[in-house]
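Entry 12.
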Amino acid sequence: MIMVHHSLIKFVLSFQWHMECGSGLAASQSTQSIFMSGVMLGSFLVGGIGDKYGRFPAVIGCQLLCGVFGFISSFATSWVPYVVLRYVVCT
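Predicted 3D structure (tokens):
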């Protein structure tokens, strides 16, 4: 999954958003780092939400947020909104 995500980001950054090869690779790697930092923050947040409200509502809420923000991130027109939306997807 990570390799597919990484290659898709490189394609989008280099062709659609007109970034050069060197900066596209750096942006792609930083996007992956931001994505994983969202995973780290999300694990802390969802753990507390799961303790307070139960695991089932926490999991359903996470899936809904992931689906909604993942869908919205497919319409991002530049790198910054894309990274912000992908961060929210992981959180």
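Annotation: The mean pLDDT is 77. Helices lie at 2-16, 21-53, 55-73, 79-90.
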